[in-house]
Write a structure and sequence with these properties.
- The chain is α/β, with parallel strands linked by helices.
- Strand 5 and strand 6 form a beta hairpin.
- The structure holds zinc ion.
- The site of zinc ion has 5 residues, from loops.
């Protein structure tokens, strides 16, 4: 049956909770809380090092619980403007090099979690280019070629018909209060859009949100699930891809 609405029946908008960098506090705090309330989220990890299969074992159970474990590259390349090293960073990479890193990360994720058939991509440091100045080139087309969606950064909730799935807007939410997090989630319903939130640490670690504030959001989403569709990025993207086939006619 063709999908005739962007969100499931009764839902006014969609919300995806995304977590970057495979941090321990996500395993310790966020995932148990999400599982307790039967909410599914997306976790973007870096399968780096020769020991990635051992080190990343806990993420297998995360995927088995119904969460998405997505691609955040192997080496997490960001602008040299962070490091100050004139030799390094995205500015010194080619499109072929970034594509090789991304494909290697996908290969390792499939080795780690063979049951997970499809997953999305997350831009390290939200940056989507290689080179600099007149030689700067977007690598969004590479992400578009290999993934149903790529998560970036932006200050809007995504329009279901017109958002570029290869570079989705997502709100960075570090240090926000519970009320602010709920407000962003509710924007999805008010605007009939898809709100994506980007988390890093929960309660501890870099760019953290306090546990009490995260809990407030989770409880709100659990209570409002009949009108707010809470789903991993891959699930919302796949539905929108199908829906757009009819909506754009
Ligand atoms: Zn990252």
């Amino acid at each position: 049956m063709p999908i005739t609405t962007p969100f499931p029946a009764g839902c006014e908008g969609a919300v995806s909770l995304t977590f970057d960098d495979g941090m321990q506090s996500q395993l310790d705090t966020a995932i148990p809380l999400l599982n307790e309330h039967n909410l599914k989220a997306t976790f973007y990890i870096n399968p780096r090092g020769d020991d990635f299969m051992e080190r990343l074992q806990p993420w297998r159970a995360v995927a088995w619980a119904g969460h998405e474990v997505g691609n955040h590259t192997v080496n997490h390349p960001c602008s040299r403007n962070f490091s100050g090293n004139p030799e390094g960073g995205l500015e010194s990479m080619t499109l072929a090099e970034i594509e090789a890193d991304i494909l290697e990360a996908s290969r390792r994720l499939r080795a780690l979690i063979p049951e997970q058939e499809v997953f999305t991509f997350c831009y390290p440091c939200y940056q989507d280019y290689v080179g600099e100045g007149v030689n700067r080139q977007s690598y969004v087309p590479i992400v578009a070629k290999h993934f149903p969606a790529g998560r970036g950064k932006g200050e809007i909730a995504n329009h279901p018909l017109t958002a570029d799935l290869a570079y989705l807007s997502s709100f960075p939410v570090e240090r926000m209060s519970g009320a602010e997090l709920v407000g962003l989630a509710e924007r999805a319903a008010a605007q009939h859009r898809w709100t994506i939130l980007t988390f890093h640490g929960i309660h501890q670690g870099h760019l953290a949100v306090q546990e009490v504030d995260f809990r407030e959001l989770v409880i709100h989403l659990a209570r409002q699930r009949h009108r707010l569709w809470v789903a991993p990025v891959v699930a919302v993207a796949q539905r929108l891809i199908e829906w757009r086939k009819t909506a754009r006619r």
